[in-house]
Protein: ATP/GTP-binding protein
Amino acid sequence: MRSASYTRTEGDWIVRSVPGSTASDRSYRCPGCDQLIPGTAPHVVAWPAGEYGSVDDRRHWHATCWAARERRGPGRRRY
Structure:
């Protein structure tokens, strides 16, 4: 049984917990550690709350990286 995603507000951010999907072949790069998150792995999606945030501002994070975001700045970007 798959757990459902849920959305909450954390300060200036809207955060959605994503359970992962066995059918997903997508991957995302976590801005906290600069590592790939497979679409099959549980993770969180965060974007700015309020009028200044949009769908284009969404970022996928490992749940542990999101929880430690105050101690960990964004990782080195790979291009």
Observations:
- The mean pLDDT is 80.
- The chain is about 5% helix and 35% strand.
